[in-house]
Amino acid sequence: MDSDRKWMAEAIAEAKKSRESGGIPIGSVLVAQGKIIGRGHNQRVQKNNPILHAEMVTFQNAGRLRANIYSQSTMYTSLSPCTMCAGTIVLYKIPRVVVGENRTVKDLTLCEDWLTEQGVEVINLDLQECVDIMNDFIKETPEIWHEDVGV
Question: Of 5, 39, 69, 97, which one's alpha carbon is 20 to 30 angstroms from that of 80?
């Protein structure tokens, strides 16, 4: 859908913000009723905090919301969510997740499968731009990448 690409462009812009500030280039936005209600990018490196993944920062920036807002929202993320972020998506009953790509990290499809089993609709746009952003980062800063993925 055109709106999915529109909102994914916002998530990609967040990913680029993270990279420009020395971090891991993953970004996300939470959208409800046609507007962004939360946005964020990975800040693990910038704030020396292992749980500041893009989706977690997005939830934090969205603030306290009523359950009916979460249940009508879509999470857009440039990289498919990890287990921590997927768990938070399920906890807040986000019904739909749109990902930019899932090729650069091994086993992310397992999280996608789990989300689907929990009733979440998962759409992978498989955007080459997202793959390129991650591959460039991995090539340029393998030590940070390997720290993040536990290698």
Answer: 69
| 121: annotated active-site residue | no
**Is the pTM above the cut of 0.85?**
yes
CB 29 within 8 A of CB 38: yes
Identify the active-site residue in 10, 14, 55, 117.
55
What is the chain's pLDDT, residue by residue, as a tens digit (151 residues)? 789 999 999 999 999 999 999 999 999 999 999 999 999 999 999 999 999 999 999 999 999 999 999 999 999 999 999 999 999 999 999 999 999 999 998 777 889 999 999 999 999 999 999 999 999 999 999 888 887 765 5
